[in-house]
């Protein structure tokens, strides 16, 4: 058939559709799905953002100890979750109702969560009434308030854990896999915009208007989750067979749960890595006290959170584009390696105290904004990681098994962090809040441990097929694995890898120039002690780092040449994605390093000049070590240089010639 003949018989082009299980979406229905899921997400995240951010301040104002704060805000919730979440998650996988298998849990918990927030809003008033009426007369007014607030916190967390147990699963059941990265990017944008509005306009009133804030959160939560329940439709699932029903009842169900969930080393490693958010969250209630120790007001802290959230809102959308291209596991594994080796950076605050305004602009705002895209990339990748690694048929079950591990660690970590600061303040700092400057010890320990775990997980994923062939292990099936959709991915792009290496080279040279320039200034102005340290230690150290870096860079480029020539590379070749993003962060970070040194000189901080110079070089050493480790973990696997699965799929589709339909004579 000629082109002219084809033009005489135009074919109807079917509207594009997307699928998730039995659900089929057009553009209009997909937009509707995203809108109501995002409304529900906004409501849930508002509750999870606002209440935990205010409660540490309230408990501290009432005289609660660090141990009690850590117990209430980081240990009680996971304790409930450890027992409740696995049961509800496991049962929800097998639940069959006309409303779906997840939404019934949203319906049931909605009034209880809302009521528990309202009780938190009036907890101090209730405590005052009970104390005056004689019910709590044996306690002091402050003690009665702490008791009532603590009780209300426990009630809130018990109600919240039920909805939190199944909340994330509805995204896996309704969002098409091909669009998961984009959806979670949009969700991150909504969360970031929410964070901006809250931190910029509301957080400064956290201590004075707690009641009004909590009541507003309760109203938004009730409306948002209610709309999600009404307008989001779940798909249909295969009926539960008699055999499956027997396997999920009582003790047999418990055996099935543990036998399937912990049946493979890959899942053990995945669950172990999942405790990293728990370790980070344990420190979160105490960060506000660190900022106060550094001289910042709540206004400074709120403004920083707002501005960074606004930047993250924009960054999240663009970051979501790369989630499926680079794979969420690779993104998080590479990022964890850098985090582990750069996590000790806050040691400088043991020796230096900057003016609050300088600390605000350089450390809190400057540092956070420079790293906002990388942070958004990691945040968006978190949920798609589970969707890409865990079996879809038992997604709730495996997520709940994972939650058992994370909740146990949250309970332990919350108490440990509270005890850590209690011991430091009691035994070493005579009650001073200077102890909060040692928060980097906890962060560094957690980052190094979790970096080792996710590197192991990444190597197992490569061994199980990697980008091209990975399927979740499924020992319960005859095939031994469960097939899954695989979006098009992008292999290591040589051009972008060379750009990343070049930018890191520029960073190394800039830091060396900074050290030499500062030494010259010290010589001119007679800062002899600092000059001696620069001449005898920092300048030789910077020269050694430059030598090590360019040697490592040469090895990587030689390996690239070997691979392009069809020879076996002498070393592993890191993927360009996260390396390019991190190199941009490091390049912009040179400005912050210069800023720290300038502020130290301007304020006459001799120790600060030495400390900031040494810190810049330690960061460079961490970067070299991180790139070397990335080369090591990629050794033995095909880097798929310049492969682009999206273009390959498009070319394949273009080469398919549709047979002409026979026309009636």
UniProtKB/TrEMBL annotation:
Keyword field contains Coiled coil: no
Bilayer-crossing regions: 33-55, 67-84, 105-122, 142-171, 183-201, 213-232, 267-286, 306-324, 331-352, 358-383, 404-424, 436-458, 499-524, 530-550, 579-602, 608-631
Membrane listed as a keyword: yes
InterPro entries: MFS_trans_sf
Keywords: Membrane, Transmembrane, Transmembrane helix
Top-level taxon of origin: Bacteria
Protein name: Na+/melibiose symporter
């Amino acid at each position: 058939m000629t082109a002219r003949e084809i033009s005489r018989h135009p074919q109807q082009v079917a509207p594009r559709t997307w699928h998730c299980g039995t659900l089929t979406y057009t553009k209009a229905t997909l937009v509707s799905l995203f809108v109501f899921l995002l409304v529900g997400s906004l409501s849930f995240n508002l509750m999870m953002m606002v209440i935990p951010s205010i409660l540490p301040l309230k408990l501290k104002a009432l005289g609660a100890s660090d141990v009690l704060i850590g117990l209430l805000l980081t240990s009680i919730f996971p304790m409930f979750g450890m027992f409740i979440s696995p049961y509800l998650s496991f049962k929800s996988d097998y639940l069959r109702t006309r409303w779906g298998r997840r939404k019934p849990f949203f319906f049931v918990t909605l009034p209880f969560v809302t009521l528990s927030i309202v009780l938190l809003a009036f907890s101090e008033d209730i405590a005052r009434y009970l104390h005056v009426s004689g019910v709590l007369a044996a306690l002091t007014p402050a003690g009665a308030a702490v008791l009532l607030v603590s009780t209300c916190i426990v009630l809130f967390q018990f109600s919240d854990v039920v909805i939190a147990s199944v909340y994330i699963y509805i995204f896996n059941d309704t969002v098409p896999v091909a669009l998961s990265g984009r959806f979670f990017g949009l969700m991150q944008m909504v969360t970031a915009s929410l964070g901006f509005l809250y931190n910029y306009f509301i957080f400064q009133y956290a201590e004075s208007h707690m009641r009004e804030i909590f009541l507003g959160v309760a109203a938004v939560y009730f409306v948002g989750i209610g709309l999600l329940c009404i307008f989001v439709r779940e798909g249909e699932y295969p009926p539960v067979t008699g055999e499956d029903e027997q396997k999920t009842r009582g003790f047999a169900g418990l055996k099935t749960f543990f036998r399937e969930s912990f049946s493979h080393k890959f899942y053990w490693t995945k669950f172990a890595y999942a405790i990293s958010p728990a370790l980070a969250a344990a420190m979160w209630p105490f960060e506000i006290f660190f900022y106060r120790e550094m001289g910042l007001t709540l206004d400074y802290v709120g403004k920083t959170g707002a501005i960074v959230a606004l930047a993250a809102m924009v960054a999240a959308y663009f970051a979501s584009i790369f989630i499926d291209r680079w794979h969420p596991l690779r993104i998080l594994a590479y990022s964890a390696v850098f985090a582990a080796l750069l996590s000790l950076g806050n040691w400088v605050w043991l020796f230096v105290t900057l003016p609050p305004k300088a600390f605000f602009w350089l450390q809190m705002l400057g540092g956070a904004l420079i790293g906002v895209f990388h942070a958004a990339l990691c945040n968006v990748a978190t949920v798609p990681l589970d969707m890409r690694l865990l079996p879809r048929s038992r997604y709730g079950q495996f997520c709940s098994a994972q939650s058992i591990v994370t909740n146990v660690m949250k309970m332990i970590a919350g108490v440990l962090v509270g005890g850590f600061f209690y011991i430091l303040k009691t035994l070493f700092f005579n009650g001073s809040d200077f102890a909060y400057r040692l928060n980097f010890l906890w962060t560094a320990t957690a980052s190094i441990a979790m970096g080792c775990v996710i590197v192991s997980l990444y190597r197992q994923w490569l061994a199980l097929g990697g980008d091209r062939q990975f399927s979740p292990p499924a020992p319960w099936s005859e095939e031994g694995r469960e097939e899954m959709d695989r979006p098009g991915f992008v292999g290591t792009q040589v051009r972008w890898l060379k750009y990343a290496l070049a930018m890191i080279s520029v960073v190394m040279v800039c830091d060396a120039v900074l050290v030499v320039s500062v030494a010259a200034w010290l010589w001119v102005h007679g800062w002899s002690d600092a000059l001696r340290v620069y001449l005898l230690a920092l300048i030789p150290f910077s020269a050694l780092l430059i030598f090590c870096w360019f040697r490592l860079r040469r090895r990587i480029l030689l390996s690239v040449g070997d691979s392009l020539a069809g020879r076996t590379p002498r070393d592993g070749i890191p993927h360009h994605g996260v390396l390019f993003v991190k190199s941009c962060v490091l390049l912009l970070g040179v400005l912050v390093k210069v800023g720290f040194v300038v502020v130290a000189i301007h304020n006459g901080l001799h120790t600060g000049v030495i400390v900031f110079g040494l810190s810049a070089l330690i960061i460079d050493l961490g970067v070299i070590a991180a790139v070397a480790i990335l080369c090591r973990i990629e050794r033995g696997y095909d880097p798929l240089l310049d492969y682009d699965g999206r273009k390959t799929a498009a070319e394949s589709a273009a080469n398919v010639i549709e047979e002409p339909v026979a026309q009636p004579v």
